[in-house]
Amino acid sequence: MTKFTIFLILIVIVAFLLVVVIMVQNPKGGGLSSSFGGGGTQQLGGVKKTGDFLDRSTWVLATVLIALILLANVTIPGAGGVSDSTALDTDEATTQQPVTAPVETPTTPTNDTTDSN
């Protein structure tokens, strides 16, 4: 497995988790935080303010996703900066001259004997 493949798998996993965390949230105050008691000051199972946890996890996952994308960009195969292009070469020995097509000569004589009278 290449580094790029590993980063690609991690990007897919983080993107899936980010979608799940965003879908759990409800913009009107409902969602997971309201099912644990509604009030932000109540504790249930040691978790205080579930909405804050979801908000922070969204930001963390988004930041991790951006970092993984940037790191994957560095490890793209063939992106080492080496160019095999000869378009910018100024050496006249490597430049090709344009090829012209051969001129066809008629094999039979043409007679312009048509009269327009």
UniProtKB/TrEMBL annotation:
<comment type="function">
    <text>Involved in protein export. Participates in an early event of protein translocation.</text>
</comment>
<keyword id="KW-0472">Membrane</keyword>
<dbReference type="Pfam" id="PF03840">
    <property type="entry name" value="SecG"/>
</dbReference>
<feature type="compositionally biased region" description="Low complexity">
    <location>
        <begin position="94"/>
        <end position="117"/>
    </location>
</feature>
<keyword id="KW-0811">Translocation</keyword>
<keyword id="KW-1133">Transmembrane helix</keyword>
<feature type="region of interest" description="Disordered">
    <location>
        <begin position="85"/>
        <end position="117"/>
    </location>
</feature>
<protein>
    <recommendedName>
        <fullName>Protein-export membrane protein SecG</fullName>
    </recommendedName>
</protein>
<comment type="similarity">
    <text>Belongs to the SecG family.</text>
</comment>
<keyword id="KW-0812">Transmembrane</keyword>
<keyword id="KW-1003">Cell membrane</keyword>
<feature type="transmembrane region" description="Helical">
    <location>
        <begin position="58"/>
        <end position="76"/>
    </location>
</feature>
<keyword id="KW-0813">Transport</keyword>
<dbReference type="InterPro" id="IPR004692">
    <property type="entry name" value="SecG"/>
</dbReference>
<feature type="transmembrane region" description="Helical">
    <location>
        <begin position="6"/>
        <end position="24"/>
    </location>
</feature>
<keyword id="KW-0653">Protein transport</keyword>
